[in-house]
Amino acid sequence: FFPINDDPGAHQPETKAIMHWLEEMHFTASASLHGGALVANYPWDGTENKRKYYYGSPDDETFRHMASIYSHSHHNMSLSEEFPGGITNGAYWYPIYGGMQDWNYLHAGCFELTLEISDDKWPNARELPTLFEYNKMSMLNLVASLVKTGIHGRIFSSDEGRPLPALIAIKGINSTVRSSFANPLVIVHKL
Q1: Same domain flag for 59 and 142
Q2: Which pLDDT tens digit goes with each residue over 160-177?
Q3: Are 2 and 102 spatial neighbours (Cβ–Cβ below 8 Å)?
Q4: Domain range for residue 164?
Q5: Active site residue 14
Q6: Which percentage of the chain shows pLDDT scores above 90?
Q7: Mind telling me which residue stretches traverse the membrane in this protein (predicted)?
Q8: Cα(42)–Cα(114) distance, integer angstroms
Q9: CATH number for the domain including 121?
Q10: Given the residues 48, 116, 127, 160, the one annotated as active site
Q11: Among 52, 64, 80, 182, which is least packed, fewest CB within 10 Å?
C-alpha cells in the first residue's frame, strides 16, 4: 500500500542519497524531528484502503514502547490531552503515503519515529535552547533504551568464518531482518 516509484529519475538527489545510505548502513533506528504538534508518532503512517484509523505495523508493540520512552522522558509531551501518553499511530492521526518513517521500516529495516517536538510549526530562534532542553533527555533515553533492547549479532559460517546472508525472524512478530553477504562488518539488529 506504499507507493513504489522505481523510476530513478523521479527521486530528488537528496532522496536517492538517503535511500542508498539507509540501505548501505543498516541503521537500527532513526527519528525525524518536526514541529506543529507535540507527540511521538510511529508507523504505519497510512492504510491499505487510504482510510484514517489505527493501523499498527508488525512491530507495533516495539514502536509504542519507543514512542513512550521518548514521550515520558519529555518535559510535558506525555501530559497531552489530544494524544494519550503523548504518542500516536500515524495512520490514525495524520495519514501520509510514501513518507520516510514507513519507508525506513519497510525497505531498510530501520525503526523510525516522527517526533513532533513543538506545537509551534516555526518556533522563533530564541525558543530553540528551551526546545533543546525539553527534548534532550528524551532523545538520550531513547538511544540508551535501544542499546539494551532486541538482538544484536553477526552471522558467520562455522567452518570458514565467512559472513553469511540470512533472514532473522522472531516468533510472534511478522517481520524479518536481513544480514548482508556483501559487508562482513554488518551487525544484525532486531528491536
Answers
A1: yes
A2: 877 777 777 777 777 666
A3: yes
A4: 151-191
A5: no
A6: 54
A7: none
A8: 6
A9: 3.40.630.10
A10: 116
A11: 182
